[in-house]
Design goal:
mainly alpha; elongated; 8 helices; 2 domains
Length: 164
Amino acid sequence: MAAGLVANAVILGWLGLPVVSGALTFGGRLSGFAALVASLISFVAALAVLDYWRWKNIRFSGVVVLIGALAVLIANLGLMALQLEEHELTAYLAIWIGMVAWAAWALWLLLHRKKVWRDIRACTLMGCRLCGRFCAIGYPASGRSLATDASKKAQIYRHVAGDA
């Protein structure tokens, strides 16, 4: 998975860097900057893959990988659409199709097999975890809720909503 993210980061960085510095219009520079941001997101997600698959030291590394896979999908779908709009078939089209297929596989793996979306709920509680209130009891480092009692769950939801 890290190889696909690094490959995407290199390709988007290679495409975006000359466009940022050499585009003649503001829109061109903006699209180059967007490619560089997507490249940076892919590279950070590639680093998060190492933690997610091996060590699990960073609690939200799976969510970072999910965001990276979404960035790969969006960027490469956009590039593929631009290429198809011009009706020019080049070797780049094979790269875009391969990266979109890789992103679809990665999203399927993360969402269906690994169920990374469960960590998104715990990720939204990070601020509450910092304040040291009830969420630290309800959401431990594993990301799963220890709150099995209905009143305890209601107390967590009130806390998150700001009522408690």
